[in-house]
Amino acid sequence: MLKHTVLQRSFIHISVASLKKGPLNLKGKSPADKRWLVRQLSDPFVKAAHTQNYRCRSAFKLLEIDDKFNILRPGHSVIDCGAAPGAWSQVAVQRVNSTGEHMENPRGTVVGIDLLRITPLDGAHFLSNQDITDPATEAQLLSLLPDARADVILSDMAPNASGLRELDHERLINLCLSVVGLAEKVLRPGGSLLCKYWDGALAHKLQTNLSQLFQDVRTIKPKASRKESAELFYLARTFRKR
Ligand SMILES: C[S@@+](CC[C@H](N)C(=O)[O-])C[C@H]1O[C@@H](n2cnc3c(N)ncnc32)[C@H](O)[C@@H]1O
């Protein structure tokens, strides 16, 4: 587990623990960076992530969704796409018992992938510095999954924001569509897929693809997802192969 939750925004890296020691030196920071820091520091999910040892606040989005829909179960194999810094993987490790801590329950598997380096986590296999859309990544992924199959695919991926809303939306939808392609290859019948997207004109295309493959597809906006963000999630359950 991480000792400190880290506030990250481009070049700002400040541990929450260090902020307790004294006033924050904002000298040299741009107004946008200052606004971002102030928002982070007053965010209850950032504080909760620190006290509960999650790597970032996004853990609470997955916790809320899983508390409601129970998609992560002991013994499950999970692929976490866009896993860095690793908060969703932390949740998945706990819920599927991939450390084997609860000996009365079956032991699951968690495999996380990211373009960035992911700090190691007990109970998870990480493919750092790997692109989910690269066929070479897929081959490695399959070798880490029992029977080369997954019960759940998670994607909290986000492309580097260009600032152009439509372009960023399209890029993220394309990433989601690659995740749907991955699901067709590795997901077990009955499996689930949870993916983040930014709302926009192409969302219906993603929804249509998901609806052809899953019995139940719904849109979710968890409480931990900031209201001002265009971020939404599709939860697709009960996979049925075409
Ligand atoms: C919002 S963060 C994920 C946070 C993570 N769910 C957590 O709880 O720690 C989005 C991540 O998606 C990753 N990403 C974007 N495009 C990717 C790709 N093509 N392949 C793998 N990871 C990607 C980014 O590097 C970034 O780390």
Report on this model:
It is found in: Mitochondrion. GO terms for molecular function: rRNA (uridine-2'-O-)-methyltransferase activity. Its main location: mitochondrion. Keywords: Methyltransferase, Mitochondrion, rRNA processing, S-adenosyl-L-methionine, Transferase, Transit peptide. It is a single chain. The protein is of the alpha/beta class and 242 residues long. Strand 3, helix 5 and strand 4 form a beta-alpha-beta unit. It has two domains: 37 residues, no CATH class; 181 residues, 3-Layer(aba) Sandwich (Rossmann fold), CATH 3.40.50. Strands 5-4-3-6-7-9-8 form a seven-stranded mixed sheet, sandwiched between helices. The chain is globular. Helices cover 36% and strands 23% of the residues. Helix 7 packs parallel to helix 8.
CATH topology category name of the largest domain: Rossmann fold
Number of helices: 8
Mean pLDDT: 90
Give the DSSP E fraction (strand runs of 2 or more residues): 15-25%
Number of domains: 2
Q: Main attributes?
A:
alpha/beta, 7-stranded mixed β-sheet, RNA_MeTrfase_FtsJ_dom, 2 domains, 242 residues, Rossmann fold, binds S-adenosylmethionine, two-stranded antiparallel ribbon
Give a nutshell description of this structure:
This protein is an alpha/beta fold and 242 residues long. The chain has helices at 16-19, 31-41, 44-51, 59-69, 87-96, 135-144, 165-186, 203-213, and strands at residues 6-9, 12-15, 77-81, 109-113, 124-127, 150-155, 187-198, 214-220, 231-239. The chain folds into two domains: 6-42, no CATH class; 59-239, 3-Layer(aba) Sandwich (Rossmann fold).
